[in-house]
Amino acid sequence: MTRPAGSSKGSPAPEGERTYLLGGNWKANGTLASVRALIAEFNAAGPIPANAEVVIGAPFIHIPECLSTLRSDIEIAAQNCSLTGMGAYTGETCASQLRDMGVTWVILGHSERREGFGMAGEDSELVAKKTKLAIDEGLKVMFCIGEKKEERENGTTMDVCASQMKPLADILSKEDWAKVSIAYEPVWAIGTGLTATPEMAQDTHSSIRQWVSDNVGADVAAAVRIQYGGSMNGANAAGLLAMADIDGGLIGGSSLKMDFFTCINSVP
Ligand code: PGA
């Protein structure tokens, strides 16, 4: 099936500027019926701004529906992939299978996966290895980092973010970084309605960019996109996206409704 064309975009983003990246993270939400209804609403929404790139992170089982019926100017992400290639790995889905289907992005290292829902979670070494494998298989990666409430309160936010990025900086080549977007998601802001203020988020985004500059290179730091995630919605997106180092969002709850398009249309 051919995907419906999105409404045509306007002029391309000026050269040298980072295109905004708006990711929707549907998590383990939705039935086939609700996904179809949401896709119909998204397909009928107006044009996506020329300086915005939009990706939906769908549950594995809903990826085929998205790939065949969601407007073609929205790319599709998986919310995880395995640390393995194809083979005898029951219950896993690997990057090359995702790529083969037409998936172009994967969200890796989300705090919910790092925490492990009471099971063994994913540590930063593992997330870095998955990221490298996914890139080698042709996927782009939203690489999630972020501190917990007590870490913000005791002033270790950047230590935490740095420790989550270090294994990635060790494993990726400079060219690989063109395939990475960093999603800064303070854990205390995810699904809680407690958004970081634009100033607070900007402060951390700028420190993250500085860290990338110091540990990877100034050119990579200038080009890499840093998305904010954590209770972003149509009411607060414009304030966050107006900040110099906030290059998009990773949006959970609000991506399950038309509010997602309010976020998309909030890009400056
Ligand atoms: P939220 O989720 O927007 O519902 O806070 C964001 C995320 O977990 O990526």
From TrEMBL:
Root EC class: isomerase
PROSITE patterns referenced in this protein's UniProt entry, alphabetically: TIM_1, TIM_2
Pathway: Carbohydrate biosynthesis; gluconeogenesis; Carbohydrate degradation; glycolysis; D-glyceraldehyde 3-phosphate from glycerone phosphate: step 1/1
Catalysed transformations (reactions): D-glyceraldehyde 3-phosphate = dihydroxyacetone phosphate
GO MF, one example: triose-phosphate isomerase activity
PANTHER family assigned: TRIOSEPHOSPHATE ISOMERASE
HAMAP family reported in the protein's UniProt record: TIM_B
Name of this chain's protein: Triosephosphate isomerase
